[in-house]
Amino acid sequence: MQTSDLIILHEDNHIIVVLKPQMVACCPDESGDSNLFDCVKEYLKTEYNKPGNAYLGLVHRLDRPTGGVMVFAKTSKAAARLSEQMKNGGFEKRYFAVLCGVPSKKRAVLENYLRKNSVNNTVYVCTQTEEGAKFASLEYEIKEEQSGLSLVDVTLHTGRTHQIRVQTAAINCPVYGDMRYGGEKAVKGKLALWAYSLRFTHPTTGEALKFVIEPPKDENPWKKFNI
To answer: Which DSSP helix (H) or strand (E) runs through 170?
Structure first.
């Protein structure tokens, strides 16, 4: 990813809000692939002629196949305050997902305990007493149904790895394009999971901020729905 590809939704002295493209890592990992964090950092160094290592704080993450809104901190103070908001539930993260199948309830809260297998980077639903179990909660609402698929609006209450993908697969409605957790219902294609809305309080001004960016409506399966 090049700095010329960067789509900036908002920037001030303390934060920068950007679009994370699908299939781009949000931060450096063992793959060594180009990633959003390094791209934003390079942009700051170039744009403001910052010598050496420009500061950039990673506040939250999105899985590589997931696109949508991300905020980074430009100062350590902003990073600390945003991280505190994350811990205290001050961040509202909402996603659109296209599911294979239609959940039995139009609106519901899904609660599970999840455990991550670090060897194969896969997450499982487990019992509360299992070692490494972490509580996971989300709320979904069905917005539209088309041809055996459903568009759902998801609000995360916790931020576990692969959480939406695992919890929707657990009710037999996996995310479209999810070959890892989709099982027999898996449909090949780009993962239809998009972080469309991010709401939080500005770390220095206290202003309530909300950023929204829609999924690529000209691509499958999004184009089947009236988003």
So the answer is: helix 163-170
Over the stretch 118-169, which tens digit does the pLDDT of each residue have?
A: 889 899 999 999 999 999 999 999 999 999 999 999 999 998 999 999 999 9
Q: How far apart are CA 145 and CA 148, in angstroms?
A: 7
The C-alpha atoms of residue 165 and residue 117 are separated, in whole angstroms, by: 15
Cα–Cα distance, 226 to 219 (Å, whole number) = 13
Catalytic member of 63, 153, 178, 218: 63
Structure tokens at 58: 């990673």
Q: Give, as one character, the DSSP assignment of residue 105.
A: S
Q: Give the Cα separation of 180 and 123 in Å (integer).
A: 10
CB contact at 8 A, 197 and 98: no
Rounded average pLDDT over 52-59 = 90
The answer, as to whether pTM is greater than 0.90, is yes
What pLDDT is attached to residue 129? 95
The one-letter code for the residue type at 224 is K
Structure tokens at 39: 């791209």
Q: Is 63 annotated as catalytic?
A: yes
Beta strand residue intervals within 12-165, DSSP E: 15-20, 57-58, 67-73, 92-100, 107-117, 122-126, 134-146, 149-156
Q: What percent of the chain is predicted at pLDDT more than 70?
A: 100
What is the bridge-based pairing of β-strands 193-201 and 92-100?
antiparallel
